[in-house]
Amino acid sequence: MKKFYVDENNQVNIICHKCGFEKIIDANKFRNTKNKVNGKCKCIEGFEFTLEYRKHYRKGVMLPGEYVSRNNGDKGEVIIRELSLTGIQFENLKPNQISKDDTLEVTFKLDNPLRKEICKIVKVIWVRDRIVGAQFSERKLYEKTLGFYLQK
Predict the structure, then answer these.
(1) Domain check: are 64 and 117 in the same one?
(2) Which of 30, 94, 103, 113, by CA, is between 20 and 30 Å from 8?
(3) pLDDT, tens only, 80-123
(4) In terms of domains, do 69 and 144 share one?
(5) CA separation, residue 81 to residues 3, 51, 94, 103, 132 (Å)
(6) How many whole angstroms separate alpha carbon 129 and alpha carbon 118?
């Protein structure tokens, strides 16, 4: 299934996979609906696609790491599950006391040939059991390293 990326104006350029016809549509009407959209081209070809509202590509990974809470000093081992230029999703190996809006220092090594260690301050956006979604507090320190690593 093809994925199309929504721009900062909530516009998306849909391209028919059969004839190549392009059409720009307003993605706002799809924002609160299911992720999968059914389309039909002027060539009568029907197809399914998904809309991606994220500003940056998110890469699925399996990287061991650790965190230290700046709120209460708690520490823990984690597995980084998803990584982007602006944020991270990880799974705690043990139950934790992490809450929304906590500030953590997360450290992990990339699994590319350089094996660069990344240490980021993050703000917790959501917590579901042992899974945590967080946003990087700053992006400049390792942006080049992450950008190169995250290339598809």
Answers:
(1) yes
(2) 103
(3) 999 988 889 999 999 888 999 999 999 999 998 888 899 999 99
(4) yes
(5) 21, 21, 15, 19, 10
(6) 25
